[in-house]
C-alpha cells in the first residue's frame, strides 16, 4: 500500500479503501479481511469526529501521520479500528465498518462464535475488530511497514459498485454522505439512524 493513497482527506480516502485488505497476525494465527464498508471522519469541521474539540491523549493518533491505526473503545464494549489519513497535524481518519474474511475464517469464527454466519463475521466495526483480533495494543500501529497489522491492496472494486450514504449511529452530522460501501454485498452492516440524531445546520 502506497502512503500517497492515504495522504488525502478522510472523505476522499474512504471509498478508495473499499476492497483493500487488513491483516492481523497474532500467536493464534493470521486473519485477513477485505474491507466492504467505511466511514470518513475529519477534525475540527466534523461534529461527529473524536477530534472535533481538539487533540487529546485519546485521539492523538488521528492527527497523523497517515497510514497508522487509530483504535478506540466504543460504549465501553467494542474496539473500533480507523485508518489515519491526510496531512500530519490535521485530524483525519476512516472508520472500518465491515468486511469479508478472506483468510483465517476458522480463527475469526472462534473469536466471534462458532454459529456465526460467514457474512456476519466482520459486519459492524466492533465485530470487524473482534474477528481480526484488534485491541488497544494495536493503537498507533504502522499499517504500511508494521509486522502485526498490515493494510494492503486487494482486488480492484468497480466504481459502479461503490455507494455513499449517511453515517451510522451518530447524533451529529449524521446525514453527511460520508459512509461508503459495496452495493449488494452481504457483509455490509445495516443502516441505523441514531435516536438522538438531529438534522445538520
Automatic annotation (TrEMBL):
<dbReference type="GO" id="GO:0003905">
    <property type="term" value="F:alkylbase DNA N-glycosylase activity"/>
</dbReference>
<dbReference type="InterPro" id="IPR003180">
    <property type="entry name" value="MPG"/>
</dbReference>
<protein>
    <recommendedName>
        <fullName>Putative 3-methyladenine DNA glycosylase</fullName>
        <ecNumber>3.2.2.-</ecNumber>
    </recommendedName>
</protein>
<dbReference type="InterPro" id="IPR011034">
    <property type="entry name" value="Formyl_transferase-like_C_sf"/>
</dbReference>
<keyword id="KW-0378">Hydrolase</keyword>
<keyword id="KW-0234">DNA repair</keyword>
<dbReference type="Pfam" id="PF02245">
    <property type="entry name" value="Pur_DNA_glyco"/>
</dbReference>
<dbReference type="GO" id="GO:0003677">
    <property type="term" value="F:DNA binding"/>
</dbReference>
<dbReference type="InterPro" id="IPR036995">
    <property type="entry name" value="MPG_sf"/>
</dbReference>
<comment type="similarity">
    <text>Belongs to the DNA glycosylase MPG family.</text>
</comment>
<dbReference type="GO" id="GO:0006284">
    <property type="term" value="P:base-excision repair"/>
</dbReference>
<keyword id="KW-0227">DNA damage</keyword>
Amino acid at each position: 500500500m502506497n502512503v500517497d493513497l492515504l495522504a488525502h482527506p478522510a472523505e476522499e480516502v474512504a471509498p478508495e479503501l473499499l476492497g483493500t485488505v487488513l491483516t492481523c497476525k497474532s500467536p493464534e494465527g493470521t486473519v485477513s479481511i477485505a474491507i466492504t464498508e467505511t466511514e470518513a471522519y475529519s477534525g475540527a469541521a466534523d461534529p461527529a469526529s473524536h477530534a472535533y474539540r481538539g487533540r487529546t491523549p485519546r485521539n492523538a493518533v488521528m492527527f497523523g501521520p497517515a497510514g497508522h491505526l487509530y483504535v478506540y473503545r466504543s460504549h465501553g464494549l467494542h474496539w473500533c479500528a480507523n485508518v489515519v489519513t491526510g496531512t500530519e497535524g490535521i485530524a483525519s481518519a476512516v472508520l472500518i465498518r465491515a468486511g469479508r474474511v478472506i483468510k483465517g475464517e476458522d480463527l475469526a469464527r472462534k473469536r466471534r462464535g462458532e454459529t456465526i454466519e460467514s457474512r456476519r463475521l466482520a459486519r459492524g466495526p466492533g465485530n470487524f475488530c473482534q474477528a481480526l483480533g484488534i485491541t488497544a495494543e494495536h493503537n498507533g500501529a504502522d499499517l504500511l511497514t508494521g509486522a502485526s497489522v498490515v493494510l494492503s491492496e486487494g482486488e480492484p472494486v468497480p466504481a459502479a459498485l461503490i455507494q455513499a450514504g449517511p453515517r451510522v449511529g451518530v447524533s451529529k452530522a449524521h446525514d453527511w454522505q460520508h459512509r461508503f460501501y459495496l452495493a449488494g454485498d452481504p457483509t455490509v452492516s445495516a443502516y441505523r439512524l441514531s435516536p438522538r440524531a438531529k438534522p445538520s445546520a
